[in-house]
Amino acid sequence: MKVLLIGGTGLISIGIVKHLLARGAQVAMFNRGEHEQVVGVPTGVEVLHGDRNAEATFARTLGRRTWDVVIDMICFTPEQAEVSVRLFGGKCEHFIFCSTVCTYGTKVPPHIFVDESFPQEPTSTYGKNKVLCEQIFSRAEGDKKFQVTTIRPGTTYGPGSPLHDNLEVDAAAWDRIERGLPVVCAGDGLGLWAFTHRDDCGKLFAYGALNPKTYGQSYNATHDAHMMWEQYYRIVAGVLGRPLELLYLPADRIWKRDPERFGLLREITAFHGVYDSSKAKRDVPEFTCDFSFADGAAETLADVRRRGKWKSSAGDAVYEALVAEAKRS
Fold first, then answer.
1. Residue 233's CATH number
2. CA neighbor of 80 nearest in space, from 56, 53, 49
3. S-S: 169 plus which of 54, 164, 246, 327, CB 3.0-4.6 Å?
4. How far, in Å, CA of 277 to CA of 148, rounded?
5. Is the dihedral of CA 186, 164, 224, 270 positive or negative?
6. Are residues 60 and 141 in the same domain?
7. Does one domain contain both 140 and 187?
8. How far does CA 65 lie from the centroid of its chain?
9. Same structural domain for residues 240 and 125?
10. Are 53 and 180 in a shared domain?
């Protein structure tokens, strides 16, 4: 099986490549080469360098080559989706698009868990663009350009990335916990969330490849286990071997202090985020989530330290102001 990843060195891509190689696939990746020195490229993986936004260069680099499967991990706009259709239509059997659970928006069904039949009503620009991309690839499938599978990951973590918290992607909370300082959570800490290790998420892409059951289908790619944010902080504090002092503050009072910094909270984590991935497990039985969050968090934070990316909370006046406000509330 010949597989091309557009991207290939991002967080989920690392997990995908691992499982594709385990399947014995011939793997190539197309990217700008900016992260290869950080994450490394596995032995036997072909690397093609270029910018996907420069269509002529993109096409020239790929030439007339054909693939069994193309997995597009870095398609974020309709314009990029149209380029993928032009370049890979008729040149691959199976096209897998990495979308996002953000396409569902922030509404929650009565039974809490969102499955693939839930209406797509995204609220973020990111989610809206991903829906447009899904529609473009669906039309391409209708035009018999290739078979399409859409995969919608949720919060994915693992080595190579920071471990985000309820407030921000690169969390200051972990350094504060290490230093014995209080940390802030939005609302009452009872919001539900799911976290999926990159190696578990990567299985759905790798083992869904060339699987006819996945053709024309969309799948959530999330862990069955879910937790409240209060539990999440306590697990990470346990991993760090430190006590936890957790304070609470309404979400809008947090993000209004710095809307850009706390954009994750404003658009995503202020709402419940748990999803039903039983459809994916039915069609791709290899998709199992084996990492416990405690083990995955320990691995991720150890990697952050090893790469020298530990975020210091020293002198963080914005966070200190949140703590002071939460203590007054």
1. 3.90.25.10
2. 53
3. 164
4. 18
5. positive
6. yes
7. no
8. 29
9. no
10. no
Q: What is the 3-state secondary structure (H, E, C) of 161-197?
A: CCCCCCCCCCCCHHHHHHCCCCEEEECCCCCEECEEE
- Residue-number span of the structural domain to which 318 is assigned: 161-193+224-328
Dist CA 136 CA 158 (whole Å): 30
Residue with tokens 């054909």: 66
The rounded distance, in Å, linking the Cα atoms of 276 and 129 is 23
pLDDT at 69: 98
Residue 219 parent element (H or E): strand 218-221
Amino acid at 247: L
**HEC profile for 44-76?**
CCEEEECCCCCHHHHHHHHCCCCEEEEEECCCC
**CATH number of the domain residue 43 falls in:** 3.40.50.720
- Contact indicator for 154, 222 with CB cutoff of 8 Å: yes
- Residue 234 and residue 272 in one domain: yes
Task: Look at residue 3 and give its three-state secondary structure.
Answer: strand
pTM exceeds 0.70, yes or no: yes
What would the two tokens of residue 158 be? 């693992």
Q: Are 14 and 152 part of one and the same domain?
A: yes
Which H/E stretch holds residue 247?
strand 246-249
How many Cβ atoms sit within 10 Å of the Cβ of residue 32?
14
